[in-house]
Each structure stands twice: as structure tokens, then as C-alpha cells.
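Chain X:
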Amino acid sequence: MLAGCSTVVVLTAGGVGYWIYSFVQGVQHGSNTCLPSDFPRYPASTYAEFTFELNGAYPGNTCHVTLESNDDVATVTAFYQSKLNTGDWQVTSNGDPANQVTFQPAKSAAPFGTVQVAVSNTHTEITIDLFTSTCLPLGFPTYPGAKFGGQSAEVGATRACHVVFVSNKSVAAVTAFYQRALNTGNWQVTSSTAGQVGFRLRNGKRTVASGTVTVAVSGERTEIKVDADT
């Protein structure tokens, strides 16, 4: 832990001592984080926390960065809504929940994530979570062209995964896709109603994952909510 920042680092090569020193200096000065080099940083913000996980609560790489600013929530949120909707980035959803911006690359599906802006004590806190994979079971079908809309995971006796995607297609078209895609191979549809598909993933006779896909209109788009227990 260093200057209010905690970082998980795995070292496998020689010259480790100098690398650590250089990395630490970069973190202190804001030049080293687990965020992509072109990811926008709010002007004059300072680092409060920085963690990186490999295959932790979420598969793949997870980057968590907390910044602090003296500017108000609305100004900071507007900055990320603008900066993450230009160049190599696109905003996929914003304002649900309030002051959250969801994003992904403009030309690929990953990495994706969220920026949450909120008041914390005497300053504004900017929480950035970046993922290279969702918490859904490997091979879970994604509706073609759907964008990332957020995710959360809870690990207890089982892993509870909640992922949101957004699409411009109709509820009927998206529902029909999942009725087909979740009834092939080791996937099995367990229930199906208008706008909702229940499923399970089998390994032989054993169920290794189960859940629901709920499809509904949200504003001007279709929202796809996937809940899975593994």
C-alpha cells in the first residue's frame, strides 16, 4: 500500500527491484494505473485507490481505480459522458443508476466498464471499474451487437452474477434469440415466457449454472438482464 493506493502486482521477471521502484513512482505521479493509456482522467483529480485483479471475483482482468476531485458531481459526470463518447470509446448507457456512465471501446467488445461519480465527505469520488470479461459462464451467448450495460457479482456458497446488456432490437427478436441459443449444446431452456427465458448449463447430468434472461424496453432501447448462479 502506497500513498493511499493499494496495488496487486504479479512479478515474474528479473530486474524486479528497479521495476517496483519505477512502478511506484509512476503510481504516485499518476502515470501508472491499470487503465488503458488513452482512458480519460478528470483534470486535477488525484488517485485515492488503485487495484488490479487477475481471475478474481470476475474472470479475466479487473481494474478498479478511485479518483478524487473538488469539482461537483454534475460537472465530473458530464466530463466522462463527453470524453467516453469520442474517439476510441463509446458510452453505452448513462444515468442508471444516477451519475453512472457505462462504456466500451467503439470498435470492439472489451474492455468495458463503468464510471460512478458520487459525493464522499468533502470531495467528489470517481470510481472506475474496467473488465475484460463478464462474470457469466464461459460461452454464454451474447445478443449480436448488444452493448455492455453494467455488471455485479457476489461470491458466497455460489457465485451470483448479474449482467446488463442494451440493444436497439425489439424485445421479441432478442427473446427469440435466447430461446434458440440457450437450447443448444450443453445449454437447456427451463422456462420461457414473454420477455423472459430460464436456462441451465449442464455438464453431463450435473447442472453447473442456472438463471434467467429478462428482456424489456428501457427508454428508447431494449435492456437484457442476465442473472446466473454458478
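Chain Y:
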Amino acid sequence: MAVRSLTSWLALGFPLVVVLAVLEGCSTMKSEQEVRRAAFWEAATECASGKASLKVDRIDGDGRVHVRLFQGGQQDAPAFSSCYNQKAREKLAAAERAGSPARIVESPSPTELSVVAASSRVTSVTIQTIDNKILVPVVLNETQMATFLLDTGANITVITPNLARRLGVETPPGAPKTKVRILSGQEVEVLLVRVKSLGVGSARIEHFGLVVHELPPLASSARPSVIVDGLLGADFVGRFTMTVNPRAGTLTLQLDDLPVR
């Protein structure tokens, strides 16, 4: 029986959750690498189940899967690749949610301008709207206040180098980078970091992964340009049910009741 090695054509471009821990300490990095690899392996073995024509040999830390193809494997490989792309993302997202759960804190910081529902599952903040762009007050590491531009087209939250310095986030030369899509479609190369927490009102996610990239001032035809400290992406607001009320000037986040799989 002919055996062929397939080690390169399943190199996948995953969301940033894959490598967000690389700037942490060694023990944390190892732990998260193990979690990611377990998610990759589970996805690969599920997709290979029932396919006698291919066998999963190993998976690299970046998600590259190495597969041995037997007779008929060439026909099954495209379906396996498509399945693996989808399932790996789903399982990585589930692992990230489990490791950094979204929550509504019971006692928000006094510096946070928010309204918390009695059920502690809903929080609202006052927003600014400038030329149909929404500015959201956020709190990082429970003390550092900042203004983020809401951009649900960004697949990851971004902070500026200036805010990173204020937070004491180190971005040494040679720090890991990756390409992400921000500003509703723009693709840029960015540095990967984590902060202790990111909060909007009383909505908070701890050990939150984001990226560092310079952002231009927010131009306005009716007022001076506004400096923004970052972009609030779908990786944060997507963990909640979000409602924006421009007339009332509020953004509301509600915890989803969907269980983590």
C-alpha cells in the first residue's frame, strides 16, 4: 500500500488566540501551548475519524497538522482540511473562553461610569458618537482608564504603543508578531501581548489577549481630532450580547447564557 507524507499544505492562518500567550512567563506559555495543542489534536482526530485513508501523525504548536496519506488519501485530504480549519477555530475559541471567562463583576471600580442591573448580568456605559463612530470608555488592569473605538470588524482588540507604555506592557525587540484584520478590513502586522484585565463598565475579561499597534487620531469634520487609545474588537464584545443605543448614548453588554463546550 502506498504511503505518502502530507506535512505542509495544511498550514493554517488561525485567529490570534493561537499565540496570544507567547509573551507570558515560561510556565504560563507552556500551559497555554498544551491547551492549544490539545484543542488542535481534538479537532484533527475528530475530522480524521472514519477516514482509513489518512492518519494524524502530530501537530505543531502553531496548528500545523502533519498527516500520513494512504491509498485514497488524496481524495479525502481536502475534506479533512476544511473540517480541521473549522473545528480547530471552534475548539480554540472554546478553550479561550474557558481560560478567560467573561463576567459581570458585582462591585465595579468607582472609576467606572456604568450602570449594573440587579441580576449582575447586564451593564451599560455612556458612549460618545462622532461621525457615526462610537467611542467607549474602558478600564485596563482595573485602574487604567482609556477610550477605545468600537470596531466589530476587528477580530482582536488593539491598544496603542502609548497605552502599552502606560500599562507597563513590555514589547521588546524581536517580540512575536502576527497579521490581523482591523479597521473594518485593514490587515496589519502587530505585536501580541496580554493584560491582567479589560473591562467595559462592569463587564470584564481577565488575562485578556490583545495586540499593540499605532492608530491614527479619529478625524471629525465638526471638531478637533480625537485621540483614541485602542480598538475594542469582536474578541471582547462578541463574548456578550451587545446593544448600542445612539439616541440614549449607551452601550449595553449582557452575559450570554450559552454554555462553554
